[in-house]
Amino acid sequence: MKSNFTLILLTLLGITGYCYAQNGSVTGYIQSADKEPLRDVSIRLQNTTQGSLTNKDGYFVIRQVPPGVYTLSASTLGYSALKQNVTISANKTTQLDLQLSEDRRELQEVTVVSRKTQYNTDHSSVATRTDVPLIEIPQSVQVISPQIIRDRQAFTLNDLTPLMTGVKANNAMGGFSLRGFTGYNPNDASFTTFNGIRGTLYLWSQQPLLYNIEKVEVLRGPASVLFSEGMPGGVINFVTKKPQAQKRFEFTAAYGSWHAARFSADATGPITKDQKLLYRAIVGYDRTNSFRDYQKVENIFVAPSLTYLFSPATNVTLEANYAHENSVQQYDRGTYVKDNKDGTYDFNYYPNNLTVQSPSDFGKTTNTSLTMTFNHRFNQNLSLAVVQRYVRSQFNFADHFVSGAIRNDSVSRSYSYWDYDQFNAQTTAYLNYKVATGKIQHTILAGVDFNRFGWYKNDYRSSPTTRIAILQPNYSNDVPAPNPKVDYYDDNKQATNLIGGYVQDQISLSQKLKALLSIRYDSYSLIQTPLSKRDDAQGDASEATAWVPRFGLVFLPLPTVSFYGSYTKSFAPQLSNSGGAGGPFPPRTAEQFEVGYKGDFFSNRLSTMVSAYTIDYTNILAPDPSATNPNRKAVVPGTRSRGVEATVQGNLKNVSIIGGYAYNNHVLLSNSSIGKEGFQYVNAPHHIANAFINYHFTGNLLKGAGIGIGGRYTSDHVGNLSNQNFIVPASTVLDAVANYAVQRVNFQLNVYNLTNARYFNGGLSRNTVASLGNPVNIRVGISYLIY
């Protein structure tokens, strides 16, 4: 594979030497009157289809412009539009430095309209870590914009997944599927990132909160070349809200079913008169009960941040997050499923409200993070970013769960107690350099990562406990504190070091042909140390290295239409490499081939995307006991996931729309102890379709009002890998929204599961239970915005 990649790399680089174009370019910086860089300014060459957006430094570039005289326009919210004549010469770059004047009247007018026009986003911060339009990226990427989050009145990532093409929440915790692969925080360390940096804030038992999230980006398929180890299905990236130079305050409140209440406040603006020091402060509180007996959860969230602008070229941002969760029955242990003893299962036999867990079960989690980001632009072609992120999660819980089959409407249970302290320290630094070799434009990204993660303490105990009658449960004999009799014991600490470096080159061969070449090298080492003789594993260690390539080609027959093909790879070291089990084992790897189409229409207000892919996943660890070693394990060839995805997203006049369809077939490739060749992979439905349409009224009588409706269809799918008869039923779930905005106030009503359909998110590792989705429920919200 390495020799093939080298040959392809040399061939593509050789091609670039022969490409020729007589076009020119225009670049520049856009600043405010106070000489602050302006981000997301729309730059257009009038009477053409060519344009750009400024990045966080106010920089823009428009390449491959035929020679001639043009009128360049620059516009953004809150500033008066600017027009300037510009002359483009062959093989030359024209440099412009422009200022925009503030226009508060325009800002107030456009703010109202913006509620209707922000479903589509044409840039992503996670796909290549460079300011390149999505249409030029040879991989499937979807961005859930701030307006979509508001219209959905989404509190957690789980609330958003019904609008993400091919993404499925497998349970009411932090487990999600992309392209048929399950990501489960924090075991898949790069499954979720924050601002493109590893180090998730939330644990596997939690739904990620959205208080401080500006938008959510989905990068589908392997992405290890930028993010190191990760899951094959893709990456979900949270883009956090940053300090702004303009004063702004927003307060929101919501109330809903099961006594759910939520409050948040978001304030930003300058601290100093020269507007060099900016702040943002976000606080939130929510609590809710459940349709299940005894369950409840309470969250407190605080996220202060500061940005200091040393100059238009240099800034540093410090961001802190604090999230505390207090709950009863924190884990989603699901709802009972009846075994009909004939190879079928009845998912509708037992009532919704029942749970195997006890009223005495509890969970207490405290998550904290601190992130420092330093950006410096040496000149218009060279910039540096350095990010240091530290995350710590402390978790204490007690829990009852199913440990056997249901007999005579009763079930055996186990009891566990867990005291856990996890950490993640990530240092990332990368240079972005723009250079031309003849007529060819290069955007080169070179970076290094150091990641140290693991846990300071892992005290886990599990043992059998009382049996329970399902329909008439009696919890009086449940264990309220750690059970002194322990059948299984973890008492250890663990540290993993990841050191990696990567180089990426985005090549503009011509106005119509782009190439992406990148490669990464990673070195991985893990050491697990017992903290007492009670620990069952008594230590573990492993080492691994990996070369991870990525390359792709993009052809643009029109400036707003592209076709692409790409090859990407991922790796993930084994979670266990114990010598007593036959280790060490080679890391898990995945290779993806993808082809696709992207198109932007109606002045980039509506985007469409279609992709087809195949992913081969190898080196899965499976039990392989022998007469001399009952704990022996072995790697098996793995699985293959193939599929097609289509997405449409954006705005047409008064209508906002987001829709998608995903077909996936994920199967085992060989016979092993985890299943037989051809077995369907768990929680990987063949079909997922979603659509949501929101209409905004503009007439005098209903101006400011909006209504929307949509839903998601999920086909039936296997809920347990070893038992292919355990089929989670197909489901269709409809949602509706209505809002009314008047001046700075917005009133909103969301109804979820409008028809009160009984549906299941997915399987939960046993044939006895499955994750049940929420019945019909509502949220009534109000937001107040001050500029």
UniProtKB/TrEMBL annotation:
Localization in the cell: Cell outer membrane
Signal sequence coordinates: 1-21
Annotated membrane topology: Multi-pass membrane protein
Keywords: Cell outer membrane, Ion transport, Iron, Iron transport, Membrane, Receptor, Signal, TonB box, Transmembrane, Transmembrane beta strand, Transport
Residue ranges of every copy of the TonB-dependent receptor plug domain listed in the record: 134-235
Domain TonB-dependent receptor-like beta-barrel: 321-754
Gene3D superfamilies registered for this protein in UniProt: Carboxypeptidase-like, regulatory domain (2.60.40.1120), TonB-dependent receptor, beta-barrel domain (2.40.170.20), TonB-dependent receptor, plug domain (2.170.130.10)
InterPro entries in the record: Beta-barrel_TonB, Beta-barrel_TonB_sf, CarboxyPept-like_regulatory, Plug_dom, Plug_dom_sf, TonB-dep_rcpt-like, TonB_sidphr_rcpt
Main location: membrane
Family: Belongs to the TonB-dependent receptor family.
NCBIfam families from the UniProt entry: TonB-siderophor (TIGR01783)
Name of protein: Iron complex outermembrane receptor protein
Taxonomic classification: Bacteria, Pseudomonadati, Bacteroidota, Cytophagia, Cytophagales
